[in-house]
Amino acid sequence: MTTTTLAVLVPLLPFLGALAGLLLGRTAPGFVRPLAVLPTLASLVLAAVVAARQGGGRAVDAATELTPTGSVPIELALYIDGFAALTAVLVTVVAACVQIYSTGYLRDDPRYPSYAALVSLFTSAMLLVVYSGDLMVLLVGWEVMGICSYFLVGHYWETPQARAASLKAFLVTKLGDVPFLIGLFALATEAGSFRITRILDAVAGGGIEHPTLIALLLLAGVAGKSAQFPLHTWLPDAMAGPTPVSALIHAATMVAAGVYFVARLLPLFEASRAAMTVLAVMAAVTMAGSALAALAQDDIKRVLAYSTISQLGYMTGALAVADRGAAVFHLLSHGAFKALLFLAAGVIIHAAGTNSLAAMSRMSHLRDRVPDAYWTMTVALLALAAIPPFSGFFSKEAVLGVAEHVVTGHTEHAPAAAGWIVLLAGLLTALLTAAYATRLWLLAFRGHGPEAPDHGRQPLTMTAVLWVLAVPSLAFGGFAFRVLPDWFDGHDLTPTLTTSVLGTGVALVGGIVTYATWRHTTAYAARTPLGAVAAHPEGGAGRVEAEAIAGHEPAYGDIAYAPDPSDPGRLLLGPLHRHAAAGFHLDAVYTALFVRPVRAGARLVRFLDREVVDTYVRGAGTLPRWLGTAVRRAQTGNLQTYVSVLLAGTVVLAVAAVLVATGA
Amino acid sequence: MHLAYPAVLSALLFCTGLYGVLARRNAILVLMSVELMLNAVNLNLVAFDVWLSRAAEETLHSGQALTLFTIAIAAAEIGIGLAIVLAVYRNRGTSDIDRLRDTAEGHEPDGPDAPDHDASAPRAAAENAEATA
Amino acid sequence: MTLAATLAGLAAGTTDLAADSRGFLSPTGVEIAFLLVGLVTFGAAVVTVTTKQLVHAALWLVVTLGGLAVEYLLLTAEFIAWVQVLIYVGSVIVLLLFGLMLTRAPIGRSPDADSGNRWVALAVAVAAAAALVWVVVDAFRTTWIDLDGAPAGSTDVTGASLFQHWVLPFEALSVLLLAALVGAIVLSRKATADAATAAATGTPPAGSPPAVAPPTTAPVTDPATGPASAPVTGPSASGAADAGSDTEGSR
To answer: Any signal peptide, and if so, which residues (chain B) (predicted)?
Structure first.
């Protein structure tokens, strides 16, 4: 088979699996698990074959136009360069791991068939986004991912948090998608095509007249999808979904779609220095702010969610200094270790019966209950904190190295201001990342107090994939930084000495300071007993998690916050802690700015409709009703009356006709 | 003979029958009035047939043939009509046409044992008076 | 109206054939006879639709139909006349009388024989009569029927035309009569079955013969009748049959 055929099969197989799963879900439950896992595994193999054949050489470009659609043609196009091939491998690896993990995690869930089908559909849509060479087709995958995310976040729709979170995720991403769509149309109008290759040709030839406007419009959609400031608020709330969904969608793939999109169209963004500066500021605010917020969260998954936002900030930062190689490098390594972190967190939540770090810090021997999760999570946290030689170190240093390049004026692609912003914010974030990674590890695995409950070993399907993902978290960066430039633009991704020393130094400082603080505060833990565990610890992992999410707010007063004096983050952040826990009150600001005016407007419309419009409608109805009442009196039921009136009318008509006929 | 004589007589008989159909209360009397109307038509047919057979040398005698058919159909009609009236009478206990008001607005279909016959009669009379007025 | 106009034109043509001097003020003998019998017929018809005695109405209908038979004879349609006497007077009137008996129509004057629709009906009928008479007289006032020569409706002529030109409709009519026969039987049987179920649920025995009906059903027959008419509703239906035959005999 040609590479093109293989590449078409990659998104098609999960799509067919999703269709079959939805159709057979009720009638043949035995087929659901194979239908979920096998197509994803097959497309993993195919994606690997495609990547091997492409091998970083010339991009595979194939297109067919189904039907003429007017001025700007829409084509089914494939465009596979090194970025697309490797991103597809990452997506399929994570998707396969998540599907396997889900068979254990949602073992007892009655809605597992639809869940698995939606995950397959999501995988298919993401692969479509990755492989598509046409922006309209890319948009189809983009929106299908959005709706799948809505359904999957709302998987536990019995809980009010999940319902609110799914709606919020959908609306906030759509808020970004509207300008995104307008931007796509403006871009296609100016370039005369939706094909990415032609658009890039047009950019190179100077055919785009308003690059700043288009780039900013597209950035809105990217910010919504990739959870960048100020549209990032949906991602922490989306943790109300099942953990595998968080791992797949909200860590490794969907949120990476925005970064991937910008990486594809980077020359367009480079054409506008304003857009690059905006991108840099956005990245800086996102990475530093959400790292601060991550330090204050109590829910283990919300820590990881803010961490994801922060790491996505690194990627957009790399794009802001015009190096998509570094951005996609970080995307790949982050996808692996963040998926691992989420899946391990799912195991820990199941074992501990709670998602609260405060409650976990009051349990001892939790790490003995879940040794697989303990070791793999340690690896992943080290990768997150960018400690050499784990993969996160190399990718993060690539980003910082590029920023330093820009600052020292070695490149013409990006403004030096963007380089400074990204470099400083990146170093600050490296410090904070190490701090919250250390805090997470200490609170989760170094607790004191009564022993953690023993629910037996975790299912093999859940622990095996942790080790599978631990391999790239450990070794991907070290092996890849020499090879990847051949696949990407050819920019050198080797860590530079300055940034390596600086980055590793601040990370070590962050970790050590956090450890010292923890040593100081952990004594308070015994004094303030805290902790609520799920009511059904023997239930399936999915059920335990749903109960833990639903129980966090009544137990601690807030979905993200716990009044725990033994939290090292509280001491480190000082007065900032309260605001960081609430995500710097961005939700409150949105409530004041948007939600309340919209609600007031809705009330006004409701009033106008109920009181004003309806009055006219009722008035319009009353007159015919009176007329009807009057006419109804003629309906006596007496046939003779009817016939009398009928014949009287006949006589009148006949006389009139005679008079007309005789000319009288 | 002037053709006007049978024609006018026929018209008058027809209108008499018309009055009977509209004004009579008993269903059998209504049937009688229908017979009157049919006979008026028959008279017309015969008169015109006789006239045309002479004046226009018409040899089909279609008027007389149609008269015979009308008579036969009238016989059938009276048989069916009486059967219907008897069925109604057996079910409702009455053959008065202005009692059969199931199609009236707001009328509840009453069974054969509706107890409010006496009560509804004045109301029906009042409605009749309104309709007349 | 076009028909009337055509006929008027045709009549104008025949007027030329006939004598011009024939006016309404110099009637022939046949015309006088037709007029007199017509007056009797019309009067009987008016009485039929206005009398308050139901059985009398049927008997006056006999007079009307008999008068019409005489008019047919005067128009030289003798076969139609005998058919009229045989079928109408012989069977239809008898059927109607049976119907009156079976529905237990009251003997004697019943003040509610006319419905409240009377005045509307009168207005409509008078208006229709005025319009029809006006049109007919206007169209045919000069048209003359030549009654001399061979009769136009003798049995010979009628039979010949009927079985030469009208065989197919004639046979179709026999099918129609059969259908009517079957229909009448079905209706009566169905009514019996319904009445049987109704009787089983305790309703008045509507399916039973009228002669054995309990007297309490008499008010049901005519509940709107005031107290004044109560005595005349009393006699049973068999009495009504007797009274009817008496009246007939007296005529």
So the answer is: none
Q: Is the pLDDT of residue A337 over 70?
A: yes
Largest Cα–Cα distance of chain A, in whole Å?
Answer: 119
Question: Would A395 be classed as within a structural domain?
Answer: yes
A123 and A42 in a single domain? The answer is: yes
Structure confidence by residue, pLDDT tens digits, A261-278: 888 888 888 888 888 888
Assess contact for A40 and A124: CB atoms under 8 A. Answer: no
**ipTM tops the 0.95 cut:** no
Q: Looking at the structure, tell me whether residues A493 and A518 fall in a common domain.
A: yes
Q: Which sign does the torsion angle of CA A149, A151, A152, A156 carry? A: positive
Residues 90-129 of B with CB under 8 A from C: 90-91, 93-98, 111-113, 117-118, 121, 124-125, 128-129
Q: Do A215 and A271 lie in a common domain?
A: yes
Structure tokens at A662: 């005789």
> Across-strand partners of A364?
A451
Is the CB of C2 less than 8 angstroms away from the CB of A655?
no
Coil/strand/helix, residue C115: coil
Same domain, A469 and A593: no
Domain with C114 in it: 2-153+235-250
- Residue B129 contacts A where some CB pair is shorter than 8 Å: no
Q: Are B88 and C101 in contact (CB under 8 A)?
A: no
Half-sphere exposure of C61 (CA within 13 A, CB side): 35
Tens-digit pLDDT profile for residues A634-647 = 787 788 888 899 99
User: Around Cβ A524, how many Cβ atoms within 10 Å?
Assistant: 14
Strand partners, B24: C114
Q: Where are the domains of chain B?
A: 4-102+114-132
pTM: 0.63
Domain tally, chain C: 1
* Interchain contact, A641 vs B107, CB within 8 Å: no
Residues C95 and C168 sit within 8 Å (Cβ to Cβ): no
Q: Are residues A475 and A594 in the same domain?
A: no
Which of the listed residues A489, A508, A523 is the one where a domain comes to its end? A523
With contacts defined as CB-CB under 8 Å, which chain B residues touch A639?
A: 97, 100
Across the range A394-405, mean pLDDT stands at 85
pLDDT tens for residues C208-226? Answer: 444 433 443 333 334 343 3
Over the Cα atoms of chain A, what is R_g?
A: 30
Domain assignment present for A495: yes
Position A399 pLDDT exceeds 80? yes
What is the domain class of B4-102+114-132 according to CATH?
A: mainly alpha
CB-side exposure of C160: number of CA atoms within 13 Å?
A: 8
Judge if the upstream peptide bond of residue A230 is cis by omega within 30 degrees of 0. yes
Contacting residues for C208 by C-beta, under 8 A, at least 6 apart:
C199
Nearest CB to B97; choose among A633, A635, A639: A639
Q: Residue A445: phi, psi to the nearest 5? A: -110, -10
In CATH, what number is assigned to the domain containing residue C47? 1.20.120.1200
For residues C17 and A300, what is the distance between their CA atoms, to the nearest angstrom?
121
Q: Are residues A461 and A355 in the same domain?
A: yes
Amino acid at A70: G
Give residue A593's domain range: 582-633
CA distances to A311, B105, B131, C115 from B109, rounded to whole Å, are 78, 11, 21, 22
A209 with A273, same domain: the answer is: yes
Give the C-alpha separation, B54 to B61, whole Å. Answer: 11
Q: Which residues of B fall within a CB distance of 8 Å from A632?
A: 105-106
Is C180 domain-assigned? no
Q: What CA–CA distance (Å, rounded) separates A92 from A120?
A: 10
Q: Is A486 among the domain residues?
A: yes
Q: Based on the domain organization, do A132 and A273 belong to the same domain?
A: yes
Query: Which residues of chain A have a CB within 8 Å of the CB of B107?
Result: 637
**How many domains are contained in chain A?**
3
A489, A523, A557 - which closes a domain: A523
